[in-house]
Every structure is written in C-alpha cells, then in structure tokens.
Amino acid sequence: MLSDPAEDHVSNDLAEELLTRSYGDGANVGLWPGMTIYRYVEPTVPKWDEIQSLSVCIVAQGRKAVTADGHHYVYDRYQYLVLRSNLHFRSQILDATPDKPFLAFVLQIDPAVVRTVSAEMVGRRGVPHHPPAPTESQDQSVVSELDDELMSAVLRFMRSLTADSDRRVLAPLYLQELVYRILQRDRFSKLLLIAGQQDGGNSIAAALNYINAHLSGPLTVEILAEQVNLSSSAFSRRFRELTGKSPYQFVKETRLERARELLLERRLGVGDVSVAVGYASQSHFTKEFRARFGTTPREYADAEGLSRDLRATR
Question: Do 19 and 84 fall within a single domain?
Fold first, then answer.
C-alpha cells in the first residue's frame, strides 16, 4: 500500500500525468484504446454507468464510491478496483475541488492478455491456468491494495503513450507488466476467474449486441436464446454466470439506462422515450424509472437541464 513520502510522490506523479492528459471536466478519451481519464472539480451525485470489458480503475487523486453486484466499494489512490465486463454499476465522486480535482483512469483489459500473462507465470508460481468454477457467492468485482510496484508499472505505461515509437513498442509491454503486477497480488485467482469467464461469452456477447440494437421491441428469454441457438434454460444460466444478472433484469436496466441517455439529449418527450426503449405503457415506464433513479423521467430531465444551464452561466 502507498503510504510513505516516496510512494506518495509516485502517486502525485500519476496525478500530474492525468492532469496534463485530461482536457476538460468529466470523461476524456482517445489517449489509448479502452482508456478513459476522469477529472472532476466537485463531488457528483450517484449515477449509473456501464462497462463493456474487464476493466481496472485507478484513482490518482480524490476518492470514489462504486456499487456493483450488490457490493459497495470506496477506493482512493491507495487502492484499485477491478470490474468484470458487461457490468452496470453505480458510481459517485466523493472528494474533488477545483484546487485538487478528482483524477482517475479506467483501462479496459483484454481477457486474452490476462490469460497469456498468467500462462507465463505458471512455471514460477504453480498456479493453474484455468480459473476456478464460479459459485453463487463469488462477486465479480474486487478492490485491492495499490502498492509502489504496481503504481510504477502504471506510470511507465502512461508515459509510454507520449511518443509514437514508445506507444507502438513499449506500451503493449508495459500493459502486460501492469497485468502481471496485478496477477502477483493476493487476488490472483479472482482476476483470473473474471478473465476466464469471458471464454464462453461469445454467445452472450451476441445476445448483448442484439439487446442494444432492439431495445424498442420484445426481448424475452425465448427470443434472445433463439438468436444464439441455445435453449432458454441454458441461455439463462450462462447469461447469469457472465453478467451476474438474469436476462430480464439486464434488459430492464439497459432500457432504463438508455432512457436516461435519451432524456439527457432533450430531443424526445417522455412518451417518445418510453416507446423508444420498449415500454408499451408510459405509466409503467415512469414507475420503473423512479424505482431505479429516484425521480420521474420528467423531473430527471428538468433537473439535468437546469444543472447544465447553471454550469453554462458560470
């Protein structure tokens, strides 16, 4: 764990790197495929988000809370968070000021990289390449301590993105080192489990793509299972193993999250948004939206619009 002055200096170095590479408040993308740098100058309200790939989340400055798979995590620059793919989660920035903004980045990790690095480690550690079978009690997100070796690997990776030649030659190597340092830690089997569960995910990935493309239409278990040539029972079982949710729950959350995005765009009324995300009844849509976000769709859109107008006048 980062605790002494020298290690704090390393953490400050990462904060400086992220500060110079972020060009505005909120999410900054484009530095590396699958990487998003976050900068906030004030705390935020809880909001729902989604990641599509196994991801490592590292805070350089400030503090953040995440709720995923029914578990609540609070982490800062002394810890890092690993989240599985296709995950809906709730996040909130807890500590951020204009003088000391919240700075963090999320890096998507190809599960194949995790398995490749772990295979190279087998000879030294004697750890089996295949992850243990999942159980009902195994959550698929985890917070671990961030020590100076891992932080140094993160810095090397970040700094290799500056020059084109370093980016091509060194960045992929430093990315593997970053994964290697994580796999060395006491949660080795956990990260490998999360990565290993992506192996059988092609059919589920296809189902997820179908869901996102057909939110306005019917999305029953039978329809989804038919799309990927599985029985309804096999599809439901595999879907829950890989996403941690039932197909019904996942579809509902995806519809409501898409509705939230459409409301923020302020191009459609509540009734049109309801239809666009597959709700035949606007009252049913309003009831489920309130249950998830704590407010009605109209109140949510009005509040977000007012917040944007206030920020624009500062």
Answer: yes
Q: Mean pLDDT highest for which of 1-10, 97-106, 199-208?
A: 97-106
Q: How many domains does the chain have?
A: 2
Q: 254: Cβ–Cβ under 8 A, 6 or more apart, which residues?
A: 88, 211, 212, 215
Do 105 and 211 lie in one domain? The reply is no
Rounded to the nearest 5°, which phi and psi values hold at 128?
A: -60, 145
Q: Whole domain around residue 276: which residue ranges?
A: 202-312
Which sign, positive or negative, has the C-alpha torsion 291, 81, 199, 186? negative
Structure tokens at 224: 């989804």
The token pair at 105 is 């980045």
Contact 183, 192 (CB under 8 A): yes
- For 231-279, the pLDDT digits (tens) are 899 899 888 877 778 999 989 988 998 898 888 888 889 999 999 999 9
Question: Could you give the percent of the chain with pLDDT greater than 90?
Answer: 35
